[in-house]
Amino acid sequence: MVLRGLRKRRGPLEVLRGIDLDIPAGQTVALIGPSGSGKSTLLRLLMTLERPDAGSIEIGGVPMWTDPRTGRPAGAAHLHRVRGRIGMVFQHFNLFPHMTALRNVAEAPRHVLGLPRAEAEARAREYLAQVGLADKADAHPAGLSGGQRQRVAIARALAMRPDVMLFDEVTSALDPELVGGVLEILQELSASRAMTMLIVTHQMKFAERSADRTLFLDQGSIIEDAPSAELFRAPRTERARQFLQAVI
Ligand code: ADP
Ligand code: MG
Question: What sequence ranges are listed for the domain ABC transporter (predicted)?
Answer without folding.
Answer: 1-244
